[in-house]
Write a structure and sequence with these properties.
alpha+beta; disordered N terminus; Zincin-like; 5 strands; 38% helix; binds zinc ion; globular; 5-stranded mixed beta sheet
Length: 142
């Protein structure tokens, strides 16, 4: 579990890198409202999902053309964490932050976070199956 103010190892999408980042939990404001709305649309109202952002609001990773926008982790029993990175907010006019949250909820909804797979197989699953699936959910809601 990620706790407020605690430095954790964040494993980013595609496992491009692992780095220590400090996160803070978001309980109110625009992102929190979007999470509530999108949880409802995804029929995930009953799932425990916490929202976090990096403490450093200038944190940027992934390159100009493919910045890291978000990630999701956790499990049904322990609860899930969705992280929205500043690039999703900075680039946004709202759209990108919402799209990012929808995308990450897509991963949760489809059980990707609960899957047991590790190492290379996990990386391949992500790249070729889960990412496509989450993008499809984010754009269609199906
Ligand atoms: Zn994804």
């Amino acid at each position: 579990m990620i706790n407020e103010g605690v430095t954790v190892l964040a494993v980013k999408e595609f496992f491009t890198s692992v780095e220590e980042i400090e996160f803070v939990q978001v309980n109110e404001g625009m992102l929190a409202r979007i999470l509530v709305e999108e949880k409802s649309k995804a029929r995930l109202e009953d799932s425990p999902i916490s929202l976090f952002v990096p403490k450093d609001s200038n944190y940027f990773e992934g390159g100009i053309f493919s910045p890291i926008l978000g990630s999701a982790c956790g499990s049904k029993s322990e609860g899930y964490e969705v992280i929205v990175y500043p690039a999703a907010i900075a680039l946004s006019l709202l759209g990108t932050a919402r799209d990012t949250i929808r995308h990450e909820l897509g991963h949760i909804k489809r059980g990707h976070c609960d899957r047991e797979a590790s190492g290379k197989r996990r990386g391949l699953l992500r790249r070729f199956s889960e990412e496509v699936s989450a993008r499809f959910y984010a754009s269609t809601g199906i």
